[in-house]
Amino acid sequence: MFKYLICALRNLSRKKFRSVLTICGIAIGVTSVIIINAIGMGGREVVAAQLDGLGLNGLNIHTKSDSVITSTSSMVNEDLHVCSSVAGVEAAMPIIMQFGSSIMRGETDNVLVWGIGSNASKIISLSVLHGRMFTQSDVVSHAMVCLVDESFAKSTYKRSNITGTSITVYLGNGYQQLRVEGVVEQGSSLLSNLAGSYMPNFIYVPYTTVEDLKGKKGYDQIAVRMAPNYSLDTAGKRITALLAKLHGSDNYQADNMLKQKQRMDNMLSIITLIISAIGAISLIVAGLSIMTVMTVSVNERTKEIGIKKAIGAKKGVILLEFLYEALFISLFGAAAGVAAAALCTLVASKLLNFSLSLTATGVFSAAGFAALIGITFGVYPAIKASRLRPVDALRRE
Predict the structure, then answer these.
(1) Can you tell me the distance from the alpha carbon of 46 to that of 197, in angstroms, rounded to the nearest whole number?
(2) Distance between CA atoms of 59 and 236, rounded to whole angstroms?
(3) Rounded distance between C-alpha atoms, residue 301 and residue 296, angstroms
(4) How do residues 24-37 score in pLDDT, each as one tens digit?
(5) Sign (positive or negative) of CA dihedral 25, 27, 28, 34
(6) Which phi and psi (to 5°) does residue 171 adopt?
(7) Would you give the DSSP letter of residue 86?
(8) Rounded to whole angstroms, what are the CA distances from 170 to 18, 201, 353?
(9) Residue-level pLDDT at 215
(10) How do residues 116-170 score in pLDDT, each as one tens digit?
């Protein structure tokens, strides 16, 4: 067995340039498949983190006729008390989302104002970098205070800590000045890089203050976080039943946001699989180049094959010799592809500030598929070489 391997390596070294080109074809295919898989996995992790940060691993309570875009703000304090009273509810918080505009240092920007409560950190991911979070006193007193994200602070003041400054906000009921009490960590850098100027800045304000700014009472929705051992679906049914009993109308809906997140994760998995399959086509093309190179090699070494068979070499020996050559081309290409993919993901992670992690499954799947391609497309030339008759082979030049 070992002598077959040595013989295969020696034969590949005869035509170094041709072998290197074929190996590069395999390497490019393996690199593309691994990078696509890494992007897909990294994207799934970022999306999952973003959905968790928005509280999308709990329940979202709203009226059936409402949506994020066309909300009638029909949830009230009694609804909040009902949600908080259900067994297993760790926290419940009103949420109001309102598009508006802001003026800061003479610059006007589009903003998305989030009306939240003092317990927001228990439900959504808000990491305060500077200043402080809202207190219950701010909510009760309808305090004219706000939190801004770090990207907003840097774009206006060129620094992250802008606590104590003022920002003027318009939500349809006149311009009002708010005091910046804190700066929160901005969302995913990948999301920010991709969206750029198309993503509005986020401003977080006590929900009671947002009601005043809008000139209208009521919430868009109520976010509920459940204890780990409680069923979200069961709790959702219990909450909607209590709300229907309270108002005498079955017009309330509880969305299990964990299921929504799982559906999105499954969708991203399917997309990654499809794109990876497209990338694998390049491996098949590289496999055809292996077949071409090996077929040419058989034609070039016809006399050599005839001599080997004349002195007693069996068909199996010739067959294995050529199969090992095809396998070595695939393995060398796979190794080079894995190394190139690791380098590309490392550089991309640094430049995009986005984690692209190689998974063992992705690496071994791509390398294994490359080896399979090499053997599959190397079978025909190997069989062709093994079936040559010594007399015919020796007669040809």
Answers:
(1) 20
(2) 7
(3) 9
(4) 888 888 888 888 88
(5) positive
(6) -125, 25
(7) S
(8) 68, 14, 34
(9) 83
(10) 998 888 887 778 899 999 899 999 999 999 999 888 888 888 898 999 999 999 8
381 against 47, higher pLDDT: 381
- Beta-strand ranges (E) seen in the chain are 59-63, 89-104, 107-116, 128-131, 145-149, 166-170, 175-184, 201-206, 221-226, 252-256
CB within 8 Å of 88: residues ≥ 6 apart = 226, 227, 229, 230, 235
Q: Quick check: 384 pLDDT over 90?
A: no
Residue type, 233: D
Identify the bridge partners of residue 169 per DSSP, sorted by sequence position. Answer: 102, 176
Tell me how far CA of residue 152 lies from CA of 132, 286, 343, in angstroms.
Answer: 17, 49, 33
Which residues have a Cβ under 8 Å from the Cβ of 156 and sit 6 or more positions away?
104, 105, 107, 162
How does DSSP assign 20-73, residue by residue?
Answer: HHHHHHHHHHHHHHHHHHHHHHHHHHHHHHHHHHTTTTSEEEEETT--SSS---
Q: Which residues are registered as beta bridge partners of 386?
A: none
17: enclosing H helix or E strand: helix 16-53
Q: How many CB atoms lie within 10 A of CB 31?
A: 25
DSSP, collapsed to helix, strand or coil, labels residue 134 as coil
Bigger pLDDT: 384 vs 140:
140
Assigned token pair, 215: 């000139």
Question: Can you tell me which residue has the tokens 């068979």?
Answer: 309
